[in-house]
UniProtKB/TrEMBL annotation:
PANTHER family: SUCCINATE--HYDROXYMETHYLGLUTARATE COA-TRANSFERASE (PTHR48207:SF3). Pfam families: CoA_transf_3. Keywords: Transferase. This is Carnitine dehydratase. It comes from the Bacteria. The keyword Transferase applies.
Length: 372
């Protein structure tokens, strides 16, 4: 079954994470993606262990549903070969340092004159201009600069990087969204355009509700550990076994929680009767809740509470999460011939679902024929 983007041809010149993640999203949904690598390959081929046949797992996680070929764009022959590919392409993805494509005669102004229907997507650190324009960007550094680290960690601890490359990944998502917006508009105008997704912008965009809080009250947000800054109980709580995470968002859910813990009167206590009061008195409330949970098995308690309508979950390890029956039910672990296993596409379409056609490192020299 052809995907939603069947017939769309993508040249993916990007390396590392944000750009390749964008390309994989487009490929999962049917686009024909040609990944162009320099002679030494994408840097992430070396980002291990673990390795398979000398290529790191990091690379395998970002380059499914692409066919790969090598071009040396520092040489005229490589640039001419790229131009030949772009003649048949709908989308170009790149994340070279600002000015590199222009130095090669492949900047947007040049390419848009030659290929007016091309959507040119650039993933960058800070954009091309402004006080930080043109500087390279890296996920952890952007987390530091955009305030993400300042709100991540225990209240009495140091600022922490989020445990996954959240800025790079959200930038990849924003790039894919931008490409789809540009393709939609091209259907009306017949013209491509330049799409930019910057790590800096994406990092700032993640600051909800901390930015909204600061805009309203002027108070510098701080670290709250696992707890939500505005809602409580929205936090990990200890049990007799493993901790669970409570995500109680309204008074009704809180009342159900109190009833199941055998302390219904707690829901009428003026310190906890409203969402605002629970947030203000969170420290005392956490003590009250953990006293009632001290003799309960965490997983069993979480299952009971969820069944009763209280949002919560056990705190699982990565292997436990990936092996969970619902993970399999949602198709979120993909296995392909050749021993490839990876995460599935999170966007589900009813008529044109994601498909998994090419394992990483599938060779390719030209685009596939367009489907009629």
């Amino acid at each position: 079954m052809p995907g939603a983007l069947a017939g769309i041809r993508v040249v993916d010149l990007s390396r590392i994470l944000g750009g390749p993640y964008c390309g994989q999203i487009l490929g999962d949904h049917g686009a024909d993606v040609l990944k162009i690598e320099p002679p030494q390959g994408d840097d992430t081929r070396t980002w291990g262990p673990p390795f398979k046949d000398g290529v790191a797992s990091y690379y395998f996680g970002l380059n499914r549903n692409k066919r790969v070929m090598t071009l040396d764009l520092t040489q005229p022959a490589g640039r001419e070969a790229l131009l030949a590919l772009l003649a048949d392409a709908d989308v170009l993805i790149e994340n070279f340092k600002t000015g590199t494509m222009e130095k090669w005669g492949l900047g947007y102004d040049t390419l848009s004159r030659r290929f007016p229907q091309l959507v040119h997507c650039r993933v960058s650190g800070f954009g091309a201009d402004g006080p930080l324009g043109g500087l390279p960007g890296y996920d952890a550094a952007i987390q530091a600069m955009t305030g993400i680290m300042s709100i991540n960690g225990e209240a009495d601890g140091e600022p922490l990087r989020a445990g996954l490359p959240v800025v790079d990944m959200v930038t990849g998502l924003n790039a894919a969204l931008g490409v789809l917006l540009a393709l939609q508009e091209r259907g009306r105008s017949g013209r491509g355009q330049f799409v930019e997704a910057a790590l800096y912008d994406s990092g700032l965009s993640l600051l909800h509700p901390h930015a909204a809080n600061w805009f309203m009250n002027g108070k510098t947000p701080g670290r709250t550990g696992n707890a939500h800054p505005n809602i409580y109980p929205y936090d990990t709580v200890a049990t007799a076994t493993d901790p669970i995470f409570l995500a109680v968002g309204n008074d009704r859910q809180f009342r159900i929680l109190c009833e199941h813990l055998g302390v219904p009167a707690l829901a009428d206590d003026e310190r906890y009767a409203t969402a605002g009061a629970r947030s203000v008195n969170r420290a005392a409330l956490k003590v009250e809740l953990e006293q009632r949970m001290a003799g309960r098995d965490g997983k069993a308690l979480a299952d009971t509470l969820v069944a009763a309508g209280v949002p919560c979950a056990p705190v699982l390890s990565v292997p436990d999460a990936l092996k969970h029956p619902h993970t399999a039910h949602r198709g979120m672990v993909v296995e392909m011939e050749g021993g490839y296993t990876g995460l599935g596409a999170p966007v589900k379409l009813s008529r044109t679902p994601a498909t998994y056609r090419h394992v990483p490192l599938t060779p390719g020299e030209t685009f596939l024929p367009r489907e009629e």
